[in-house]
Every structure is written in structure tokens, then in C-alpha cells.
Amino acid sequence: MEEAIREIEGAIDEVRAELGRVAAKKHLASSRLMEESRKHEDLGEQIEIAVAQEREDLAEAGISKQLDIEAQIPVLEATVAECGAQETELEGYIRALQAKSREMREELRQYRDFRVQTIPSAGDTSGDARSDMQQRVDKAGSAFDRVIE
Q1: Is the whole model's pTM more than 0.90, yes or no?
Q2: Does residue 123 carry a pLDDT above 70?
Q3: I need a labelling partner for 141 at 20 to 30 A (CA). Which of 13, 29, 47, 130 fits?
Q4: Dist CA 58 CA 50 (whole Å)
């Protein structure tokens, strides 16, 4: 039972590591999105200056760069949104695994308490006590199997 709890805690650590990677990816995409938006605005100003100075070649180059940026912005926005959804999902997994870990710890505590209560009456090894204990062990095992799945 303790090994099952340790495995769940290991899974929690793995999910947290993945959550960190997703958060970093989201941060990078957000930073890049802000940077590209800033470049787009700067190019707009530069295009206006180029048009005012009748430098059509510079204006065309600026417009071309703006179009490239406009094509990248939706991709970056989608990445940020996707990462946000992944963060929410991973946080939910962490909460679920933590709840399962607490539940399993409580079951282990109850099992130990049960053993302490039944050990003094070891001469009285009734089938009910064994079946109750076996049911608890089976329940903990099936809970672990569900988490692994």
C-alpha cells in the first residue's frame, strides 16, 4: 500500500514537471505574441512615414513584413490558448492525484489502526476480521489500479 502511495506521488511529480513545461511554453508564446504585436505597430508607424516621404519601396517592404506578422499572430494566440487549456487539465490531474493519495493514506491509516485493534485478539482469528481486512486491501488495490489507468 505504501508503494502504491509512492507511485502516485511520483505521478504527481511527473504531472507537475509537465505543468512546468506547459507554463514555460505558454510564457514564451505570450512573450512572442506581445513582441510581434509591438513590431506590427512599429511597422505601421514606419509605413506611414515612408508613404509621407514617398518611399513606396520602404512602404511595400513594411507592408510585407506586417502581413507576415499578421499570419503568425493567430498561431501564437492559438498556442497560448492551447497551453492555457493544458495547464487547467494538468492542474486537475494534480488535484485528483493528490486526493487519491490522501484517500490511500487514510485507508492505510485505517488498516494499521484495524491491525492494532485485532492483534491483541490474535487467538480469535474470525473469518469476518480477515474478510474485512481483505476487502480493504482489495479496495486499495483497485483504487491504485484505477489511478494507474
Answers
A1: no
A2: no
A3: 13
A4: 6
Cα–Cα nearest to 149, from 5, 51, 8, 2: 8
CA-only gyration radius of the chain, Å:
30
3-state secondary structure of 24: helix
User: How many angstroms separate the CA atoms of 105 and 100, rounded?
Assistant: 8
Contact in structure between 118 and 22 (CB atoms under 8 Å): no
Place of cell 498561431: 75
For 12-67, what is each residue's pLDDT tens digit?
999 999 999 999 999 999 999 999 999 999 999 999 999 999 999 999 999 999 99
Single out the residue of 104, 89, 111 nearest to residue 7, CA to CA.
104
The domain of 15 spans: 2-148
Separation of alpha carbons 71 and 63, rounded Å: 12
